[in-house]
């Protein structure tokens, strides 16, 4: 069970180019989970940011004829922060590894480990992939000696470095994977990591001496810390491990999201670092799937990288968030397709949800002058709908807890489908024609039932589609009759009868306008 606070992180992205839908995928997921937990009344904290040091960023800056600091400042200001604003992603902190509070806490961390004897000086001779910012073994290379991930040549380095005694942590890591079975997820990834650790760990080189774009090793200013052991510490710096112990105690441990490219760093090196420092390990490390282009992981260095704006310009931000979060099983790979998003937009958003909202508002307008009438006794069909609603909240909440974001959204979508089916069966337009008191009471019940489920749909979709949910909430008059949407406790959203009769229902804005042009 999650406690009263919820702390979720994305990787901090290398600032070598603008974000694309791959980096946006993790960040959107973190935002959706954060909003969900907040709607549950928890203290939620979302962290994202940028990884700015190291050779990869340095070389990109050089290629662009800028100093590394200028280069990252420009990209963060012009590309990274605006992309998250565009997507309604509202992190509690956007951390940059050049932030002074991060730099100070990274130095303190490594000084402590050095003082405690976990760090020693040695000679590193081996292979390095700058694109991965990772030391490579023969097994990590193609037959031609290229990096398996980037299919680019690796570099041979030989330098005096400091080493972290990672090899001493194998047994403790294996015990962690056994005692905390969902520490690494999904389960296939967990087995891979377990096997990797079981095969034996080598000590890790944690400093570089041939360039200076990094955080200085605190006890030896001729070297900078290896970019990964600087970057991983963003998670502890952001919540003040050494400069705000209260905040740290409130939020730690986190749930870390990423894709499997960097799962080893997060589930092997990172917990070992924390163990050495005497800090609690994360709650969970979860690798979702890759967004693929032409069967390969979309990457910033890839010419086919798609910027989120290309999609939101046509479909809007809510549909963007809904599409990626609902149609891709969280944990599986997927390819983006314009045809698919067009179909999902038309079928699930414009037709299923958008039409339902406008039909219900139109009927309340036409038959009851826009005032939600007092319902009569619930019949079998309403009881079934109320039960369906109760179940949906339960199922969706359980799915979000398991990080099965797609299942949670699917549950809400299915509920919307059920209401549409209910309307088709009940035929309120026919009932309206009968002026008898019984029929009129029945009509009030039907319209009330629809509006009441839509009330809950707004709460359930609020984490995924904040703009459309706010519009739906306003059109139900719920702002005035119940209160702010963000304040509605998710856990009791399934309770029937919260929308009071007498509420003014208005047609409001169309939730998902039709898209005339083919998007492809
Ligand atoms: N800077 C490191 C992370 C340090 S975290 C302490 C890094 N940066 S990155 O820019 O390469 O980001 C990698 C992450 O971006 C992936 O783990 C994933 O979260 C996200 N994605 C990048 N491309 C992606 C896809 N094509 N598909 C899905 N996620 C993608 O590694």
From TrEMBL:
GO terms for molecular function: ATP binding; metal ion binding; methionine-tRNA ligase activity. Residues 7-139, 144-360 form the Methionyl/Leucyl tRNA synthetase domain. Residues 374-518 form the Methionyl-tRNA synthetase anticodon-binding domain. Its cofactor is Zn(2+). One of its GO terms (biological process) is methionyl-tRNA aminoacylation. Binds 1 zinc ion per subunit. GO terms for cellular component: cytoplasm. It holds the Pfam family tRNA-synt_1g. The keyword Membrane does not apply. It is an enzyme of class 6 (ligase). It comes from the Bacteria. Its main location: cytoplasm. Zn(2+) binds at residues 129, 132, 147, 150. It catalyses: tRNA(Met) + L-methionine + ATP = L-methionyl-tRNA(Met) + AMP + diphosphate. Its EC number is 6.1.1.10. A motif ('HIGH' region) lies at residues 13-23. InterPro entries: Anticodon_Met (IPR041872), Met-tRNA_synth (IPR014758), Met-tRNA_synth_2 (IPR023457), Methionyl/Leucyl_tRNA_Synth (IPR015413), MetRS_core (IPR033911), Rossmann-like_a/b/a_fold (IPR014729), tRNAsynth_Ia_anticodon-bd (IPR009080). Keywords: Aminoacyl-tRNA synthetase, ATP-binding, Cytoplasm, Ligase, Metal-binding, Nucleotide-binding, Protein biosynthesis, Zinc. The keyword Membrane does not apply. It is found in: Cytoplasm. ATP binds at residue 296. Belongs to the class-I aminoacyl-tRNA synthetase family. MetG type 2A subfamily. PANTHER family: METHIONINE--TRNA LIGASE, MITOCHONDRIAL, METHIONYL-TRNA SYNTHETASE. HAMAP family: Met_tRNA_synth_type2. Is required not only for elongation of protein synthesis but also for the initiation of all mRNA translation through initiator tRNA(fMet) aminoacylation. This is Methionine--tRNA ligase. It comes from Antricoccus suffuscus.
């Amino acid at each position: 069970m999650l406690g009263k606070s919820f702390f979720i992180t994305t990787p901090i992205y290398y600032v070598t180019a603008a974000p694309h839908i791959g980096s946006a995928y993790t960040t959107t997921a973190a935002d959706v989970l954060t909003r969900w937990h907040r709607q549950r009344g928890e203290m939620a904290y979302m962290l994202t940011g940028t990884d700015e040091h190291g050779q990869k960023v340095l070389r990109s800056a050089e290629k662009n004829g800028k100093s590394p600091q200028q280069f990252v400042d420009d990209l963060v200001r012009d590309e990274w922060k605006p992309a998250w604003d565009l997507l309604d992603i509202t992190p509690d902190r956007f951390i940059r590894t050049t932030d002074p509070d991060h730099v100070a806490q990274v130095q303190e961390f490594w000084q402590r480990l050095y003082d405690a004897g976990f760090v020693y000086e040695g000679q590193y001779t081996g292979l390095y992939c700058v694109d991965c910012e990772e030391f490579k073994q023969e097994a990590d290379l193609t037959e031609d000696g290229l990096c398996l991930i980037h299919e680019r040549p690796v570099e041979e380095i030989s330098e005096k470095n400091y080493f972290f005694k990672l090899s001493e942590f194998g047994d403790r890591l294996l015990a962690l994977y056994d005692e905390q079975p969902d520490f690494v997820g999904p389960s296939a990834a967990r087995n891979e990591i377990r096997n990797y650790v079981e095969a034996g760990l080598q000590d890790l080189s944690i400093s570089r001496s041939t360039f200076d774009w990094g955080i200085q090793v605190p006890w030896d200013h001729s070297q900078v810390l290896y970019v990964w052991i600087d970057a991983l510490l963003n998670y502890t710096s952001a919540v003040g491990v050494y400069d705000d112990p209260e905040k740290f105690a409130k939020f730690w441990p986190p749930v870390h999201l990423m894709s499997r490219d960097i799962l080893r760093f997060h589930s092997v090196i990172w917990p070992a670092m924390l163990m050495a420092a005497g800090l609690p390990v994360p709650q969970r490390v979860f690798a979702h799937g890759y967004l693929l282009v032409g069967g390969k992981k979309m990457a910033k260095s890839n010419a086919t990288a798609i910027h989120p704006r290309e999609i939101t310009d046509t479909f809007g931000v809510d549909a963007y968030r809904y599409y990626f979060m609902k149609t891709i099983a969280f944990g599986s790979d997927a390819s983006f397709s314009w045809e698919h998003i067009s179909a999902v937009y038309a079928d699930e958003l414009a037709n299923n949800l958008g039409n339902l909202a406008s039909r219900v508002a139109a009927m309340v307008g036409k038959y009851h002058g826009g005032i939600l009438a007092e319902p009569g006794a619930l019949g079998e069909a309403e009881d079934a709908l109320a039960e369906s609603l109760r179940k949906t909240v339960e199922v969706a909440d359980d799915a979000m807890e398991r990080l099965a974001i797609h299942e949670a959204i699917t549950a809400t979508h299915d509920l919307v489908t059920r209401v549409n089916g209910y309307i088709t069966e009940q035929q309120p337009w026919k009932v309206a024609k009968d002026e008898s008191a019984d029929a009129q009471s029945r009509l009030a019940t039907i319209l009330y039932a629809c509006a009441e489920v839509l009330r809950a749909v707004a709460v359930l979709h609020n984490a995924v589609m904040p703009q459309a949910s706010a519009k739906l909430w306003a059109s139900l008059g719920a702002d005035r009759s119940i209160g702010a949407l963000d304040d509605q406790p998710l856990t009791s959203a399934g309770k029937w009868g919260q929308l009071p009769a007498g509420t003014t229902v208005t047609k409001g804005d169309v939730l998902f306008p039709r898209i005339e042009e083919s998007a492809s």
